[in-house]
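REQUEST FORM: STRUCTURE PREDICTION
Request ID: SP-0412
Submitted by: Lab K.M.
Chain count: 1
Length (residues): 185
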Amino acid sequence: MSRRPSKALYTLPHGIEVIGEYAPSATNPYWRVRIRPHRFFDWKVVHGGMYGRRSRVIAASTIGRDLKPGEHVHHRNEDRTDDSPTNLEIISAADHNRHHKTGTTKSLSSREKTSRSLKRAYVEGRRSPAIRRGTEQRQSKLTPENVREIRGSSESCLVLSRRYGVSKTTILDVINNRAWSHINV
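STATUS: Completed
RESULT:
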């Protein structure tokens, strides 16, 4: 039998009752809260309460639903301790990463650690390389129709490379099925 705390510290819109607050620490730079179980949140209940970041709880109370897994809460003024609703913005994970990572580079040790981790994941079968073919590659200059034209042409590699804006090596790879091998003539 769990006992219910006698009084909430404060109540947010939609009846979200905050029953505990925890200041940022060395391991977690965000304010955290403990709330009474609420229909918005599908979180684990521990000792009669749910624990989460205060910014996420306040954002959820503002929009009237729990945040989706791909939604992040961004602090507009970059102050993680300012969880006022006007300072919080819900954005996608990609936009949040783009906002904070613009112009940054990772250290050599960080890149090496990521490389080792990815290599281990490939070896252990937890990850497989993404094979992108043809126009699935964003940098692709050729289309399947261009490939068919190149393979059916009797013109020189130099003429074809200038026409399609690719190297002579690329033209030879297309002709000899080393590139675009998934396209049949």
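NOTES: The first helix runs from residue 54 to 63.
Reviewed by: T.R.
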